[in-house]
From TrEMBL, chains A, B:
<protein>
    <submittedName>
        <fullName>Asparaginase</fullName>
    </submittedName>
</protein>
<dbReference type="Pfam" id="PF06089">
    <property type="entry name" value="Asparaginase_II"/>
</dbReference>
<dbReference type="InterPro" id="IPR010349">
    <property type="entry name" value="Asparaginase_II"/>
</dbReference>
């Protein structure tokens, strides 16, 4: 099966650009609704951070380090590198007796406008704490310390990544179709869209064991602290705030988005074939509307919904639309 | 015919993302080589600025205002809003007895890192001169003054835009399939990929009349001043510099790229269906390599060719590849 048309850009009454992709809405028993190819193999990228955080909680490392919900939210975050995020991750590392130099995620300029401006205007280089994945890496370091493993925690055969792979294969119920190196240097395991949606359904309907408790705890941390999971002006934060704790959503690079919907016991995974973020954001927001979880008139989510696009003079120049049949 | 796979992103031995689109290489007699659907209707966006500048030259307005090749290059530019570009367009308007307020392009933060930093760190708002289309608009104002037309030169029925539409339909040899409003508020007319490639072939093999002289003059201006057509760190500038006056290339929003190749009497037009810039740049650079116009080992163009992608720590994480069969 090929990718399905999901989101289109229209201008002057003509279709200017088209984003195709794959979407699966699943419960623990399997596919409930799908577009494109549920068997398409993808890299979840940062959309699976709550899966990568499972060993941190299940191993007892999170409790041993007395991690708070704020820290668990950061472990699942692709944050903006605002002072809020950088400060919290820095304190977390200090509490472990570690510092920024122990991270293996690399440094990049933060997305947060204020922090970016502070760095650029003071000619200060960003540090690894600014990396959008620094919270996930602080979680890896916490587990690394707990199991007394070596410092190169992003190596594929490091006990931390072996534990992550085991959890990933269990919750997707698939053997990893492969692995790649993510932007933050950590391994990222491949699975089908269906497998990723199934994993999210597991978080939506957690069991009573250690796995279920960890899933519930990570979901609760994400929805309790949407500002830590991404940041101001970001889709994940705006959508989670708008859904007031009912749903956790998480983006991943190259057009991936997932959702965890406990009240419906549903999980969602989607991948835009071309990797386009604008389409991934419009698609997940459209699905939240489709499931009655957001209000079309909520100004906080309007910019992520399909609708008119304006130019530098405020003129409407085009429109982002749902492709016919989606959803 | 549907879009053809052109550029792919690979990670860990798996295809992570795919960009499809339409490509036509044409001479004045028609299609020489094509991928995807040559009849696909597109908006050329900024890739057709040399067409939008034809009435400026053909009307005698450019000569009456004593425009230099530098100004004609700016009329065809999507510039970075560097001090170089902002200063030159400002002087041009002053020479006409006009100022920034006469522009109708709107203001946006420039792409140029130095100028952007200067504005952000001094809390100065960008002005319309910073708009990447300000040179095109200065050309429109020059023609407007020459023909003594009213100030609202971006209106569809304004004499300037009627002249642009006439030239556009003549060089594409098609009746415009429609029109939209561009990011800079000017009308942008729709045509087929084949029509846009045919128009570029016309610039590559200009006749001896007023049209041919204008086409030759605009081509010469673009290749003589690649730094004015885009700016440092931009594909158009890097590729034109690398091809040392032999070829003019121009990008347009939503994944469009064109090329004018006089020595082969060829024109090229391509559109990435999803609007992806990374794929449009990789595709046009791949075609220049395919036609023997650039050297695979030229470090100045390496970042626009398909090849390895590295992350924040310099690790190779993936690879941009040509899809099978392209080119």
């Amino acid at each position: 099966m090929t990718a399905a048309r999901l989101i289109e850009l229209w201008r002057g009454g003509l279709r200017e650009s088209v984003h195709s992709g794959h979407v699966v809405i699943a419960d623990v028993n399997g596919i409930v609704e799908a577009w494109g190819n549920p068997g398409a193999v993808i890299f979840p990228r940062s959309s699976c951070k709550m899966i990568q955080a499972l060993p941190l909680v299940e191993s007892g490392a999170a409790d041993a380090a007395r991690l708070t919900d704020r820290q668990l939210a950061l472990a699942c975050a692709s944050h903006e590198g605002a002072a809020l995020h950088v400060g919290a991750v820095g304190e977390w590392l200090a509490h472990l007796g570690l510092d920024e130099g122990d991270l293996r995620c690399g440094a990049h300029l933060p997305g947060d406008a204020h922090e970016r401006r502070r760095l650029v205007c003071s000619e200060t280089a960003p540090c690894q704490l600014h990396n959008n994945c620094s919270g996930k890496h602080a979680g890896f370091l916490t587990l690394m310390r707990h199991i007394k493993a070596g410092p190169e925690y992003v190596e594929l055969d490091h006990p931390v990544q072996r534990a992550v792979r085991r959890a990933f294969e269990e919750v997707t119920d698939e053997k990893a179709a492969g692995w790649g190196i993510d932007g933050c240097s950590a391994p990222n395991f491949a699975c089908t869209i269906e497998g990723l949606a199934r994993a999210m359904a597991g978080f939506a309907a957690p069991g009573t064991g250690a796995r279920g408790q960890a899933q519930r705890r990570l979901f609760d941390a994400m929805v309790a602290h949407p500002e830590l999971v991404a940041g101001e002006g970001r889709a994940c934060t705006a959508l989670m705030r708008a859904m007031r704790g009912r749903v956790a959503v998480k983006t991943g690079a190259e057009g991936v988005f997932v959702a965890i919907i406990p009240e419906r016991r549903l999980g969602i995974a989607l991948k835009i074939a071309d990797g386009g973020t604008r389409a991934a954001e419009a698609a997940i927001t459209t699905l939240m509307l489709h499931l009655g979880l957001i209000d079309r008139n909520d100004p906080a989510v309007a910019r992520y919904l399909t609708g008119p696009l304006t130019n530098w003079r405020g003129k409407v120049t085009g429109e982002l639309r749902r492709a016919e049949g989606f959803p």
